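Entry 12.
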Amino acid sequence: MKKRKMVTLFTIIFIIMTLISICHNFIMLIYPFFKLQKQIGSSNSVAIIGGADGPTALYITNEPSLHIFTVIFALLSIAGVLYLSHIKRIEK
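Predicted 3D structure (tokens):
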């Protein structure tokens, strides 16, 4: 029972981290797309740097961007959900 609670807790944490990572990697590209009216979907890295006392700079690069954390968190979330559904099926 204690093991199941721990797996449930970690699964919820991994799902939240997956959603945050997806938001950071994919959804944050929408703002510069509409702001600049350019096709930046093909760019791999977008950085917005700005401060309260200076101008805002937008950097767009074509260097490869690794979305490894998103993939790792998604795989751990899927593994946790599968494990919990398997345990639930065994208990019935």
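Annotation: The beta strands are 45-49, 57-61. The longest helix spans residues 2-25.
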